[in-house]
Backbone:
């Protein structure tokens, strides 16, 4: 059996616990696990929840604008929207101004779901054990990192 040994100091950059990507990945897994029962109660998947969050903010977005907001390509987003439309949460329609553009609108059932989802953020805050200002600051830092990595910062 190989013996455990400590890496030399110059190998610290390759330690798993020193990897930002792993911290973000494992935190994402934990967050998804937290959301699952909350969203199961609403009969939503996490990507469907994200779509609803955006549409509750701004109803009637084009599919392309929705994809930009969620960092999803149309090949991923279109089947998701079709399933959500089939379940009665939203409707898609061609734009009157531009037939090539498809707009997405929340259905009455989708609007009613918002009232049931309103408690989810508080559940997440409670599970985190962090004060809201700390969570808001962390969210801002992660968004800034994302924007830098995608080249979308000013």
Residues:
């Amino acid at each position: 059996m190989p013996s455990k040994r400590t890496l030399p100091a110059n190998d610290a950059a390759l330690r798993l616990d020193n990897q930002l990507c792993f911290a973000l990945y494992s935190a994402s897994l934990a967050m998804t696990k937290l959301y699952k029962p909350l969203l199961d109660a609403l009969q939503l998947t996490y990507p469907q929840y994200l779509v609803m969050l955006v549409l509750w903010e701004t109803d009637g977005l084009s599919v392309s604008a929705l994809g930009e907001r969620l960092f999803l390509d149309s090949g991923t987003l279109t089947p998701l929207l079709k399933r959500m439309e089939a379940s009665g949460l939203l409707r898609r329609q061609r734009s009157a101004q531009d037939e090539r553009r498809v707009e997405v609108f929340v259905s009455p059932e989708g609007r009613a779901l918002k009232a049931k989802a309103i408690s989810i953020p508080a559940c997440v805050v409670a599970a985190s054990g962090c004060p809201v200002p700390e969570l808001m600051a962390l969210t801002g830092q992660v968004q800034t990192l994302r924007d830098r990595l995608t080249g979308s910062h000013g």
